[in-house]
Amino acid sequence: MKRIAILLSVLLVCGCTAPAATASGIDGKYVYAPEGGSGIYGEYVIDTKAGTMTVNEVNIFGTPYRNDAALVETITQNGDEWTSEEGMVFSEGADGSLDVNHGVATLQRVIEPQVQEDTEVKQNPIATITMADGKTMTLELFPAIAPITVANFVTLANSGFYDGLKFHRIYSGFMIQGGCPKGDGTGDPGYSIRGEFAANGFVQNNISHTRGVISMARSRSYNSAGSQFFIMHADSPFLNAQYAAFGMLTDGFDTLDAIAATPVTTNLYGEKSVPLEDVVIASVRVETFGVDYSSFEKLQ
Question: Chain-wide mean pLDDT for the chain?
Answer without folding.
Answer: 82
